[in-house]
cystathionine gamma-lyase
Amino acid sequence: MEEDSKPAKKHCEETLGLATLAIRSGQDADNWKSRALVTPIVTSNSYKHDVYAEGEEFHYSRSSNPTRKALEQNLASLEDGKFGLVFGSGLGAIATVIYLLKCGDNIVLSEGYGGTHEYFRSCADRLGLKTTFVEGTDVEGFASAIKPNTRLVWMESP
């Protein structure tokens, strides 16, 4: 696989292309006692601590684990972001975004997947959020649905 013609990032004084970032970002061999070059999959759900919650990065896999941290760093690097978040399910990601909003905020949504559609129809109302559904290919419909209180435009495609 050829490196991209435009350099994406500097790493250890060498310029890395997107292809290299995709396979190397977040994979620091010094993070692993085995010094593995490819991030091992950590299946543990809890971690040993000399004194609970003092100076240890990982406590319980629901909040973070080494494998997920490596993936988040990798995805952030590919998007030139400072950090990234990954979730165990689409609903986990949706709920996290929703809780960034406040009562009265408007969300403009494409019709999207059935589960997402149903979640917004049933749960957003209970949280005091306003929802406006628009056909995903209707550019004018999206533009006209955006109001002063619109805080999120949500689009999904298969």
